[in-house]
Amino acid sequence: MKSQRGTITNLLVCVLCLFVALQSHLQAQTPKRDPLETLRQLLNLPAPRPPNSEQQSTAKYPPAFFDKNNPPPDDAPLSDLVTYFSRWAYRPEVVPSDTVRQRLFEFCLDEPKYFVNFANLVPQTKAAAIKIKEVYDKAELEDHERGYIKNWLIFNSDFFVDELLELVKDVKENERNGSVDNAHALIALARVKWEVAEPLLRNMAAAAQPRSGALAQSLFYLHAIGEKDSTAEEQYRKILKTIASNRDLPPYARDVAIEKLSLTEWAGRDEWYLALFQDETLIEPSDSGHSVSPLTTLCGSNPDKWIPVMARLVESKDLVTRGAAAKCLISFSDKSAAKEALTPLLPWLSNPTWISEKFKASRMRLMHRLGELDIPESVPGLIWVVENDDGDSGYNRSVAAQSLVKYKDPRAAPALKRALAKEKLESQRKNILAGLIASQGLSDAEQLEAVEAYASQLTSAETRAEVERYRNADDEQLPMPIVIGEYLGNLEVVPEPLVQAVLTRAETLKSDNVALATALLEVAHRWQGRQVELDMITRIGNGSADSNIIDQALKRSATMRQNLTPQLQALVSGSGMAPGVGAVLLDNPSLAQDVLTSKDQIAQIALLACSRLTNTRLPVELVGPLLRSKNELLALAAERYLLLEDSREARDLLWQHHPNKAFVTGWGENAEAVFENFKPARELEEKLRAELLKDNGPVEVISLIGSVTDTNDRVLRIFSDKAIYTHYEDSARYRERVVSNAELASFKQFLKTKDYAQCS
After folding, report:
1. Which end of the chain has fewer CB atoms at under 10 Å, N or C?
2. What separation, in Å, do the N-terminal and C-terminal C-alpha atoms of the chain show?
3. Three-class DSSP category at 293
4. Beta-sheet strands, E only, within 333-416
């Protein structure tokens, strides 16, 4: 075995040496491609949808900026806080500090359109409500912005009590869903206008509906605490305790009672709470399919206090108590608390009957959590699951394998190899492969062999379709090397030695097997990493890059600028397509302008084609003259770029270039792939174009076209002597009226202000 490992290592060293040598001579040895054919292919790729304003504002932030475990500090620039918490405001994983909450609240008062992003963080206080009401009354708001702010005020203030009461009228027991409809409206009314809510709550508490009755009693209890009425507090506490212990009541009612009793301080609470752990009906309760978890609320409120208690309870001889404690320990989300909480449960991995079978879902969740935390003591138990646990048709084994990725422990490799050999489901096989590779269960030579076996299937449309189709467990499975190669080929990041080995293998095959060499490059260029990006830049520079390589490079230009700026700058001083591609990869307006004003048409076409695929802005006044170029490919590149750029200046240039043709501007070439059922919109667009070309037809058409059905389209047809607005209600009915000159002028001014496109 030692000798075999030495052979593999020596082979890898030779491969790496060969790779370095080949890279240094790539410029001289690699044949160039026909640049015009490559450029045609680039221009035929569908341009992506232009980014909206929100996407443009977040584009400058790298993915690491949005790490949920590393929010910006309290004194970070306001723009950073707004961008970061726009993503996380409605997620429980990230809780902003009071300082950040206040800064965002004040920002929303100045910029009310952002209220929708941060309403969840606004203080639920009367003072906050007064300030928000001032904004609602005075600020210029879009209808949807005004509606959202009003909705917040309805549920968090007494400014719109009548409307809140209308919602409360719909509060009712829902036995089918195991809940209370519109409960949030009743809770809000009790908080903002108790004197109005009280009689409604009394009627509800007296009715024979257990869920809504429990909700009413809990609101009386909370009000008594707020009013410091100890007599009423004790009265309602007794009622809630009775509800909590009554096994004949629906789980929703019991959950409401236990939650409110758990979140308030009172003498004897802890003893009462722990006694509930012997009630098996509270462990996995479900009310008409609506699952509740009444015992985790109090435990989760104070990890330092309750984790040691639960750790002792999982040693209880009573299986019900043990299961309840285990479920509480698994529920902790904070990472520091979760590590302490899950460690006492590790015996459950290799002993599925340690806790009752009814808790199998919790045991599976334990396996998931172990892949998120750092508990190396869990590795032997996870290996046991991979080796022995066929529960849920092998899903347990798959989950354990996925968690083993975290630990990269070679001890897991033999069990994972055996599990891979018998697994038939593709989704579960991927988890096992991930664990196997992380556990160093595949040698470098085996990985290279597998990638080549997979790449060989990409050399024809027929074999590519066969390898890419989904397989059920009953289907004939692909040979294992292809399975492994497909998995590796679709990863984002693979070990650097594998990247180098695949690129080297592609170089050695380019003369004898062009198809396989191309397929290996396709696979390698899917991966992320400096070596892959360097190879792309080298091929662009020496003219051997095809349209796929250039497209892949454009998609990772931000990373290239960060890590390989000198290499990118070298492209600009090159020849052929390289200067045009390089200017876009560098995102350098000055270099782009130099290319546009040069006489190098190949570089100009490359610049326009790449700018179109990346939404890179170029000076329209320099692109426009290229529409008249005698070089048809350059003229086409200019036109397709201007269609995507879609500024008023770009539209004017295109209409001048296509006079009297009702030329439609704006992005739309890839709309069918972005918007489902876009065909009706296309068909109506063509009909409107045809109208413009008819004798005595409209001279201008402005329309709002639906993209799903042929209904609700709105069209304004402007003739030489009148304007007619038509609202198509459905395929058979429409409403129509003549628009006055004053209305038309006002509407056109609105379009000009908003910079909407027109067809004329």
Report:
1. N
2. 77
3. coil
4. none
Q: Quick one: tokens of 154? A: 């309805």
Measured in whole angstroms, the distance separating CA 676 from the mean position of its chain's CA atoms is 19
- Residue 417: its H or E element: helix 413-422
- In terms of pLDDT, which residue wins out, 751 or 211? 211
Query: Mind listing the pLDDT tens digit for each residue in 553-579?
Result: 999 999 999 999 999 999 999 999 999
Residues with Cβ within 8 Å of 195's Cβ and at least 6 positions away in sequence, in order, are none
DSSP 434-475: HHHHHTT-S-HHHHHHHHHHHHHTTSSHHHHHHHHS---TTS
The per-residue pLDDT for range 195-253, each reduced to its tens digit, is 999 999 999 999 889 999 999 999 999 999 999 999 999 999 999 999 999 999 999 99
Dihedrals phi, psi of 625, to nearest 5 degrees: -60, -25
Cα distance between residue 635 and residue 623, in whole Å: 9
3-state secondary structure of 714: strand
Confidence of residue 49 (pLDDT cuts 50, 70, 90): confident
CB 38 within 8 A of CB 64: no
Q: How many Cα atoms occupy the beta-carbon half-sphere of 139 within 13 Å? A: 22
Report d(CA 757, CA 738) in Å as an integer: 22
* 437-464: average pLDDT: 95
Question: Cα separation of 590 and 596, whole Å?
Answer: 10
Under 8 Å CB-to-CB from 165, ≥6 apart: which residues? 189, 196
Give 540's contacts (C-beta < 8 A, 6+ positions apart).
549, 550, 553, 571, 577, 578, 581, 582
Dihedral sign computed on CA atoms, order 123, 127, 130, 132: negative
Evaluate whether 562 touches 530 at the Cβ level (below 8 Å): no
For residue 4, pLDDT over 50 is answered with no
Which pLDDT score is estimated for 753? Answer: 67
Query: 154 Cβ partners below 8 Å, 6+ apart?
Result: 160, 163, 164, 167, 188
Beta bridge pairs of residue 418: none
Residue 711 scores a pLDDT above 80: no
Residues in the chain, total: 760
Q: How many CA atoms lie within 13 A of 314 on its CB side?
A: 22
Contact call for residues 562 and 589 (beta carbons, < 8 A) = no
Q: What is the CA radius of gyration of the chain?
A: 33
Residue 708 has pLDDT above 60, yes or no: no
Average pLDDT over residues 623-629: 96
pTM, 2 dp: 0.72
Q: Residue for token digits 């292919």?
A: 41
DSSP 693-713: TSTT--SEEEEE--SSSSSSE
Cβ-based neighbour number of residue 639 at 10 Å: 20
